[in-house]
Amino acid sequence: VVMAVAQLYFHLAPKAEVGVIAKALVRLLRSHSEVQYVVLQNVATMSIKRRGMFEPYLKSFYIRSTDPTQIKILKLEVLTNLANETNISTILREFQTYIRSMDKDFVAATIQAIGRCATNIGKVRDTCLNGLVQLLSNRDELVVAESVVVIKKLLQMQPAQHSEIIKHMAKLTDNIQVPMARASILWLIGEYCEHVPKIAPDVLRKMAKSFTNEEDIVKLQVINLAAKLYLTNSKQSKLLTQYVLNLAKYDQNYDIRDRARFIRQLIVPTEKSGALNKYAKKLFLAQKPAPILESSFKDRDHFQLGSLSHLLNAKAVGYQELPDWPDEAPDPSVRNVEVPEWTKCTSREKRKEKVEKPFYSDSEGESGPTESADSEPESVSEESGRRRSSWRAREEEEEEEEEEGAKKAKKKKASQGRKSHTETSSEEASASESSSSGSDSGSEAEAKRRKVPPSSRAGPKEISLLDLDDFTPPPPQPVPSSSIVSTSLVTDLEGLTLTDTSLAPALLSPAFGAVRTYELLHRMAGEGLSVEYCFSRRPFPGDPHMVAIQIQISNNTDAEVKSLRVSEPKPLSGMRIQEFPEIERLAPGDTASVVMGIDFCDSTQAANFQLCTHTRHFYVSIQPPVGELMAPVFMSENEFKKEQGKLTGMSEITEKLMLPEKCWSDHAIVQQVTVAANVGRVPCGADNEYRFAAKTVTSGSLVLITLERREGAVAQLTVNSEKMVIGTMLVKDIVQALAQ
């Protein structure tokens, strides 16, 4: 019934009245998962054309971890449809949480949703793109693959402005094994090979080595890359192209063999070549339109809302389109339908008929309290849920009995009131007490005998979805005109795997000052126990492959805290955690400082563990900046140049920047670089160059940094490292430190 009314309101009602039916539809999301699925399918279609209809209930579509995958994806679709410049900051922060889910299909859908938000809202396109690039360092290959596919679509909109991202993705061909992701990277390099003239031939060389072992979709893109490089950079890629075409000529797949023969005749001029050879560049290097990321529900509105055809997105048997509105109103008598006698039954017969088992399963369909701020929790026991149908059938009979009981109680109370004139005040209190307890026990026994649920005893018989006043949408909040998108949005999306820790005031370091201190546990969340930590940049005793972390624990309560320790560390695969020694007692107002070691495996992924006391357990996590994953290395200038010569090509990342006036001095530049990363300075003969060296703590891979000052405030930053992801992230952190 609600869906039928929703259909009429959606097409006919003015905007002021549409919110009424939106409230009813959102209320249905508390029902079984099967009902939620049908409702969300229709809401996803409505939210495309009438976004404002559901904007007040945005939090009702937030996703719970207990939702089935199909419900999660539908809610994600609705959230993406509702995204605009006002609420995009909130929605992207919500997506940031979903990325950490263990449901890989849901994570892939979330990454696609971020891509759609970036397409629809231009102000956050660069922010979303940077966040997706950070996901390329994720340990999960499926997350990386999905990010590559979405980044490829976003880069087609502004390829010239993001040549550095294309270079970064080119370096991932050695690690990513998902065929679709490898094919997307190759297409991107081939399409914009003019932006990466030095890297593209090297990628073709590597792919030629593994051509016979690649999947068919990757082989086709290797052939396309070879053809485009042959047309734009024939001097470097001519022999490689011939080698790839010869391999494809004898491939087992006939599509690849046909593609190789076709491209050979098209790009290699021979006597038999036709007129098409002259237009090879126009055919291969023509400008392609950027893809449009649209909702999959955009074309479903040609089916009627609430119909089976709309649910399946296919015309079901028996489906009929609604006729057009008539020019003249029909006779009202056509709506009068006579009800057959055999369908009528008395209310007494309804009470006696057997109640069938409900269709929806209680274990799968019953949904718990929603996380929305607009919702209220439901407290219904499992037993009452199984029997609610039989209670509804007997409600009238029970209410009649309750009314009779109330009349008798009223008469009894009146008679007791007349007798109370002859009793003392103490006897009156005693009688009142016994009467109250007797009445309560009697009502409980009566309710137990009839098995009446709490909701039936306390509430009315039926509640209309539209009559509930606890679901009034919140008043609209004014949007500041100065800044539509939050200024902290880049920080919120950075990495898309950030924990909820926030930066605390900086402490002084024995070396160059300003070592950041991070908050591990706030005193409110820790019930008076506050914990902060910093990276001490000293070797961890006993294991040189671990990062030493200084932890400061403060007891802000009035009671003594006992048995402070680390329990149940749950690091990701390969990570190791060395707990600090247990603190037996921490007096009120005291502070204890301990050191623990974590092997992050040269990754910025967070290490999760429990901080325990004798009464409580707190779940915390430590996520390292990329600059804390390394230790300084001291070398001569000649050694620096020798090692730098070995780390060229794809192992070299270069970035141009403008130095602010406060960073023009040597001391300021060295201080900002060493604050951003734990590196050692290398002697340099040139006055306009600054060199630094370090090695990663886990693998010992060299990281070489060169900052060259040029005319005015222009400078060039170069990082050489075989750890390409670390190099890319380090460049970003140093540029940000120098710009502050």
TrEMBL record:
GO BP annotations, alphabetical order: intracellular protein transport; vesicle-mediated transport
Domain AP-3 complex subunit beta C-terminal: 458-605
Principal subcellular localization: membrane
Low complexity: bias regions: 427-444
Assigned keywords, A-Z: Cytoplasmic vesicle, Golgi apparatus, Membrane, Protein transport, Transport
Compartments reported by the entry: Cytoplasmic vesicle membrane; Golgi apparatus
Membrane topology: Peripheral membrane protein
Biased composition (Basic and acidic residues): 348-359
UniProt key word Transmembrane helix: no
UniProt KW Hydrolase keyword: no
Feature: compositional bias, Basic residues: 408-419
Region named Disordered: 348-483
GO cellular component terms given for this protein: cytoplasmic vesicle membrane; Golgi apparatus; membrane coat
Family according to the record: Belongs to the adaptor complexes large subunit family.
PANTHER family reported for this sequence: ADAPTOR COMPLEX SUBUNIT BETA FAMILY MEMBER
Protein name in the entry: AP-3 complex subunit beta-2
Source organism: Pygoscelis adeliae (Adelie penguin)
